[in-house]
Sequence to fold (371 residues):
Amino acid sequence: MLWTIFLLLNGLLILVLLYSTRRRQKNEPPLDKGLIPWLGHALEFGKDAAKFLARMKEKHGDIFTVCVAGHYVTVLLDPNSFDAIINDTVFLDFTRARNQLLKRIFSLQLPSIKPTAERKWMEWHFHGLHLTYMQFFMLEDVSACLVGCFSFQCNAGPAAFWLLGFLLTHPEAMEAVKSEIRCLTLQDTSLQHPPINPLEAHSTPVFDSVLSETLRLTAAVMINREVVQDKILRMANGKEYHLRQGDRVCLFPFLSPQMDPEIHQDPQIFKYDRFLNEDITVKDKFYKKEKRLKYYTLPWGAGKNICVGKEFAVTAIKQFVFLLLTHLDMEMCDPEAKLPPVNPSRYGFGMLQPDGDLQVRYRLKMPQHKM
Fold:
């Protein structure tokens, strides 16, 4: 027993010594180890990563190194310098971070669903918006396989929730999307053979802008790399920083560029037309310090490790919302209700989860009822 205690104390002493000997070397990013040996900033980072990293950015600038549970993580928040990390497959490795992320994301269990008689859908139903989409799929007689696939994409469900939530709480956005959809359906009814999927046959710049704005506000992925060889990181402003082998590098696009006021005016506010030009074409020119940005929003990652399911997810989200708006009457139970806050512990794992729900009521549209 005494020998065990001695070994534990000895190991703790070694950890403290290793922690205390880490010093910022020449040309390395600012180092912030925190007050607790080994643990560093782990508690604050895990509780609300966005709030913590925003505080570090204000203190140190666009690049800094922090200690998190024994790991030293260099955080880069300058979107103009992201390519130096994203495109490096020699000095940086993604394998371990990818495996950890897959384990966290896909540990998902589908809820059981019971078929509902269609006539009951003609009455008003009261539910939370989050998971309503599952019931609607049963009404549309979509196979259980498709429901499973949609649910398995653990980011697509929350994305649909936020998109619908923003539309319901912003009437001008809802009307703009419905107006665009009405134009599509009017065009198709005049055709002898209307397209099976109107969203694929026509461009939907307003709908796309709403989705992009939704993802800007709620997609909070962290792009992580492990430094496998000492690396010189060359920033867009010409500065160079030394990254140590064994450390980790992290990009957090949610903080910058997505919530950067230099790039997006009033970044906390939902603006459905933020990604539209005045002529209703897609806006893709954004600037920081008078330099055009390659990355002005990054919900899907980038480079060789971009989300392979991006196209499927976008199609699924848009198709689901399109079907809902064209087949159901939906409104909030309380017209003054607000969207629930996000769960701050979910920063870094893809789409943010709502910490609460939005109560809505819905019914099947009458055949003669126009949207």
